[in-house]
Design goal:
The structure is a single chain. The chain has a single domain, classed as SpoIIaa-like domains (Rossmann fold, 3-Layer(aba) Sandwich). With 133 residues, it is an alpha/beta fold. The longest helix has 19 residues.
């Protein structure tokens, strides 16, 4: 399950990944939220809490989906978890980590620091509104 965090605002999205994450969770909850926010703001920042993540079942995700996720414009990403997840995630770039993104790992006890880092200077990000037709 992927839960959107209430601290999310503007170009900053926060998510908690709980239990087993499936293709459906990723494709129906996570990516659409990112795409909507990118459409409104251009660049986005992410706070991802994986401290309750048990596993991910991304077997059905094909190369086209992985390549599509690389189009996202994620400027910064704070990942909350433990050292085991940090080592594991370095090999799973299509799931959590996006290219050309400043990624930092934080232990669960430093969530406030992670929120502060991911939010730092956000008011200076350019806002790109979708053209109305």
């Amino acid at each position: 399950m992927i839960e959107r965090l209430p601290e999310s605002h503007g170009p900053i999205l926060g998510f908690r990944f709980i239990g087993e994450i499936t293709d459906e969770d990723y494709m129906e909850d996570f990516l659409p939220a990112l795409r909507r926010t990118i459409k409104n703001f251009g660049l986005i920042r992410l706070f991802i809490d994986i401290s309750d993540l048990q596993s991910e079942d991304m077997g059905a995700m094909d190369d086209d989906v992985r390549e599509d996720s690389r189009l996202l414009y994620v400027e910064r990403e704070a990942i909350i978890g433990d050292r085991d997840w940090e080592r594991r995630l370095t090999y799973v770039d299509h799931f959590f980590i996006f290219p050309n993104t400043d990624v930092r790992f934080f232990p669960f006890c430093r969530q406030d620091e992670a929120w502060n880092w991911v939010s730092e200077g956000v008011e200076q990000l350019p806002v790109m509104r979708a053209a109305s037709h």
